[in-house]
């Protein structure tokens, strides 16, 4: 990966320019000037290369230069539109029009842009200035090369213009010249990252984390409320610390009665981290290893909530991309995209054809219908379970899951045709937050006859009669017939979820 170097001259009191941007007080002479010409010839602008006998001298360290508007404009004011034609030139400004074909004006986030540059092939990247741009890119600076002149000016433009936040660099080289100037090189200190579960003493720092990306996340009030109920727990909450600062957080969730977590539903890595996906993967992996060692029979999945139409928003795509890379690198390689649907009273009760009746049934009857419905299902999880476990175990897992949900077993109904033949099943259910469609299905031999609409209408009716003002449901985006049935019944898509899970080992494995 390419290196970003802030190579800049300063006074003894730490200014890179005077109060009005002037820098002509910096001496350039003697053995100091000779060393800079020999070692950093590409940092001399075009109009100065001839007088210094640098025409045609090849670049030594850099092939790219970054400038803030304040650094670029003094040359522009005297007609110099391309100060470094021997380098790829970028000027960061949201208002400057492109003044020269050889100079690219960047109006987007400097941090994201520089991270992209670093991944490209090429030589070093020179951050020329100024203070504001250097402040924004502080976390991306890999090396500082400071030309310190024996001059004091009292006030002016500082080396960095940034909020207070200490960052460590280590000295790697220092030279003193006869002119009194020094050339000092620092590289970013390698501060270790500690990944661990939290304790009660960490609560304030965990809840202080805020996510400003357009994805679903868990704010402090919800975390604290569900912490009291046992759905979040300190041992299920993991953080990454660097130099005493929380730089990443992972919140695993489970039911209040769960022995092990069910899902990771909030992953955050601070934007200052150079490779967010890599640290996210380390954090997820550490948690999954711990849960496996504690006897979790099934590793928790990762559930990322996204707004509708998220693929049309670059910011949402970027937020999803690094989380996806983290999940995949941590071994959660099975992915499903799922719609979260909602019904509210303004949609009206869906109509029923009246062709089906709904009756209670025994556990054995429900287990048999679950097994029959699983065959040929378009639901991604059901299909994976069938391939891994077969229909009997798949049906039993579904029954066990819904028995463990907040809904009541007494709500379950078998759907029957007028001649008493079982057509499918309707399982009104609930989550910790709302009444839920739960599970519905039609047996294979009766599919395609519209019975799914009747089953969904029955579930909706039962929930409404119980007083539900909101009914939720989910279906895979690949399950187009089911999504269409929900739409016909007045369920609207509220959000999209990407769900990553660890591939399960089948009997043959």
Structural description of this entry:
- The chain is built from 13 helices and 22 strands.
- The chain is of the alpha/beta class and 509 residues long.
- Strands 11-12-13-14-15-22-16-21-20-19-18-17 form a 12-stranded mixed β-sheet, sandwiched between helices.
- Helix 12 links the parallel strand 20 (435-442) and strand 21 (471-476).
- It starts with a strand and ends in an 8-residue tail after the last strand.
- The model has no long low-confidence stretch (mean pLDDT 93).
Give the fraction of residues assigned to helices.
25-40%
- Shape, per Cα inertia axes: elongated
Strand content: 25-35%
| Count of separate DSSP helical elements | 13
What order do the strands of the largest sheet run in, or round the barrel if closed?
11-12-13-14-15-22-16-21-20-19-18-17
Uncertain regions spanning at least 5 consecutive residues: none
Total count of strands? 22
What's the rounded overall pLDDT mean? Answer: 93
Class from helix and strand fractions: alpha/beta
Distance between the termini: 39 Å
**What's the Cα radius of gyration?**
31 Å
Describe the largest sheet. Answer: 12 strands, mixed
Topology:
Layout: E1 4-10, E2 15-17, H1 30-39, H2 46-49, E3 62-68, H3 69-77, E4 88-92, E5 103-106, H4 110-119, E6 124-129, H5 131-136, E7 143-148, E8 157-158, E9 169-176, E10 182-188, E11 193-197, H6 203-207, H7 220-228, E12 237-242, E13 245-253, E14 263-269, H8 276-293, E15 301-306, H9 314-329, E16 334-343, E17 357-359, H10 363-374, H11 380-403, E18 413-416, E19 422-430, E20 435-442, H12 451-465, E21 471-476, H13 480-488, E22 492-501
Parallel strand pairs: 1-6, 1-7, 3-4, 3-6, 4-5, 14-15, 20-21
Antiparallel strand pairs: 2-8, 7-10, 9-10, 11-12, 12-13, 13-14, 15-22, 16-21, 16-22, 17-18, 18-19, 19-20
